[in-house]
Amino acid sequence: MLVRYLSQIGKYFLMLKEVFKKPTKWAVMKGLIFKEIDDLIIDSLGIVAFISFFVGGVVSIQTALNLTNPLIPKQLIGFATRQSIILEFAPTFISIIMAGKMGSFITSSIGTMRVTEQIDALEVMGVNSLNYLVFPKIIASLLYPFLIGIAMFLGILGGWIAGVYGGFVSSNEFITGLQTEFIPFHIKYAFIKTIVFALLLATIPSFHGYYMKGGALEVGKASTISFVWTSVVIILANYILTQLLLT
């Protein structure tokens, strides 16, 4: 079993090497990149905005309801919302949700091309199919931090609205909490994580879709497996990056 996992990891890195070989003509690649930006980034805006806004509100309300001691200042609600959203929720949990949304889309689209022999047709025409299919997704994923920036803003906005209009904290207290002990490096840390997660989101589902075997049923299985492994690797990368950057 260990040998199988190690061989898959090796195969994954060999795939990454092949992605950058024999590039497709820019005239063709440009259209593919814009299509992937639309499919992976623009189409994800709605779900990211919806989840971020309401989770920010829930974090604010739960923090407020647990502040039973009158000696603890209400500013802590804003502080806790900011820390939760910026450090973990926006970069990590949105990425795990995107592993289900973006990852399944990538695996199923490439897997369907494998099943219907479209990838074989690309190879016959002398096109580097990995560069043609995976490289545009990697370039599109570089805009993923834009999504996470929106998630951070809407999460904090949702927390402010839930806290202030729910009667848990005044607007001034919440904003004071947001500004308390703010460390600018936390934003950099969140975006460094985001870029790593973006590359994982683009490449791991592509790997599972490209190397799948079988028919339509196996496409569904490959999508499930890719979601599981993308989530596992994101969580492991999150731990490693936190250990390296924050300790």
From TrEMBL:
GO molecular-function term, one example from the UniProt record: phospholipid transporter activity
Keywords: Membrane, Transmembrane, Transmembrane helix
Gene Ontology cellular-component terms listed: ATP-binding cassette (ABC) transporter complex
Superkingdom of source: Bacteria
TM region(s), chain numbering: 40-65, 85-106, 142-169, 189-210, 222-241
One Pfam family this sequence matches: MlaE
Record-given protein name: Phospholipid/cholesterol/gamma-HCH transport system permease protein
